[in-house]
Amino acid sequence: MTTQNLPVGTSDFKKIREDNRYYIDKTKFIKNIINDSPEIFLFPRPRRFGKTLNLSTLRYFFEKNDENTAPLFDKLAIRDTKEFNIHQGKYPVIYLTFKDLKALSWKSLFIHITSLLQKEFDRHTYLLESDALSQPDTAYFQSILNREAGIEDCADALFRLSQYLFHFYKERVVILIDEYDTPIHAGYTKGYYEEIISFMRGFLSAGLKDNTYLYKGVLTGILRVAKESVFSGLNNLGVFTLLDQEYNTYFGFTDKEVRTLLNDYEIAEFYDKVSYWYNGYNFGGEIIYNPWSVLNFTAGKSREPRPFWVNTASTDIIDKLATRGGREVLEEIGILLENGVIEKPVYDSIVMKDLDIRDDLLWSFLLFSGYLKYTGDKIQRKNYELKIPNEEVKIIYEEMVVRWFAEKVESNKVEDMLKALETGDITLFEIMLKKVVLQVMSYHDLSGEPEKVYHALVLGMLVWLSGKYEIRSNRESGYGRYDIMLKPIDIKKHGIIIEFKQVNEKENPEKILESALKQIEEKAYAVELKASGIKDILKIAVVFRGKELWVKNI
């Protein structure tokens, strides 16, 4: 059993190595960066998947300074390569992390940007004592240090610092930028999207486009913000998303790495739990585990899995996008919560402002942010099969449904409605369902689309009854497709089948109720429940007309 401490919350490579903390070797990553043809690499990955640690590793590998960092790589994969002997400690490095750059306004964010640039220029104040800077260069350098530079001068900082470093070291520069899109996300949610996009376009273009002083540039983020928005004209850019096989094992833990980790800490018997809760991601065909959650589980004393990753960032954007959608989005979230699969186009670059007008971008955003996974190869062109990756992420969707209901109806009404259904009290179920309908949907929502109520009901069931029933919707059974089926985990309890019908002004609701119940019988929807040994089956018809509804059962 290893006695090494785990690097929970530590993303500084030097600290991990000097403190002799447990480290899963990803240093082959460095060899690929050196030998692959792109000058600039972009690695979009979900948060907490090792992006910052990998950039820190690159920094201590490449950076040329007075400190000998070669011993940090002893006994690691990169150590005995020719690339190590040629490139380790050879290059000046610019290292910027944007992961904490969030603010309520553009003015406030720009203050944070000037502080970030000041700190990086301050690491290189030795340049002021050299002949690498002209008098105007010195004045510019001082303006950054004093945080007096304006937006245009700050946008030029990446290029100018690389120029100064090249003149001093007579060696090209490595530029490392962590979580470049964090301020873009903040701008999108807080209302200064155009300002931050304009700044980042100028900042990155100046520093990375045709920069003769650049050896390699490596950027990380969650999304590839569309090329025309930020990476305009960067022909030397290589983008490796979680859809690509290249670099697919360098972010997150592979199954083999997780097995080794659990064995090293003598908790291998919890592998199945860890797998169920934290794996399921598909990066370029490789099964990947969430490293943050695996490390937290391994480091903790409790051996009951918890949603560690869920609590590390706000889900405001997810809530905004998912709950904005209409009937189709509700239906598809319901399918996902049933452990089902949806087929959607996936776009690997996104213009954030288009999220407000293009509902089809929601699924790409969820995939690249770690809230969905793709199950295999493309189906056709851009289409992929998508599903929830694991139990931890499923909790996020369940909490979102609870919040969605809470905005429209008191959760106790939903709980009372479903409890009545569970106990077979159809009279109370009808009363509570009417109350939920009145509060959940406006008359406009219901006009012509009573199925919205059906899908809202399915979502409620999936969350509030998921521990007691398998909830299924629109599945084949017998000779047709039922609307909703509740299959009890305990077969001694009653199963439930619900059929929904819309009735117009000229139709008799009672006749439509009878028709719906007859359909349940004739189409033999109960076959699946009976085959599972469930003897007591409650068959319910629900008929809608606007906000009016009627319920009947047999």
Number of domains: 4
In angstroms, what separates the terminal alpha carbons?
61 Å
What share of residues are in beta strands? 15-25%
Global outline: elongated
- What structural class should be given to the helix and strand makeup? alpha/beta
Helix coverage percent: 40-55%
CATH class of the largest domain: Alpha Beta
- Helical region count? 23
Summed over residues and divided by their number, the pLDDT gives a mean of 89
Q: What oligomeric state do these chains adopt?
A: single chain
CATH topology of the largest domain: Rossmann fold
Number of strands: 18
Strand order in space, largest sheet = 2-3-4-1-5
Mind describing the biggest β-sheet? 5 strands, parallel
Uncertain segments: none
Give an overview in words.
With 554 residues, this protein is an alpha/beta fold. The chain folds into four domains: 13-239, Rossmann fold, CATH 3.40.50; 253-309, no CATH class; 314-394, no CATH class; 409-553, no CATH class. It has 23 helices and 18 strands. The strands form five sheets. It has a five-stranded parallel beta sheet, with helices on both faces. The chain has a five-stranded mixed beta sheet with strand order 12-15-16-17-18, sandwiched between helices. A three-stranded antiparallel beta sheet has the order 6-8-7. Strand 15 and strand 16 form a beta hairpin. Helix 8 (157-169) runs parallel beside helix 10, helix 15 packs parallel to helix 21 and helix 18 (411-423) runs antiparallel to helix 19. The mean pLDDT is 89. Pfam families: AAA-ATPase_like (PF09820), PDDEXK_9 (PF08011). This is AAA ATPase-like domain-containing protein.
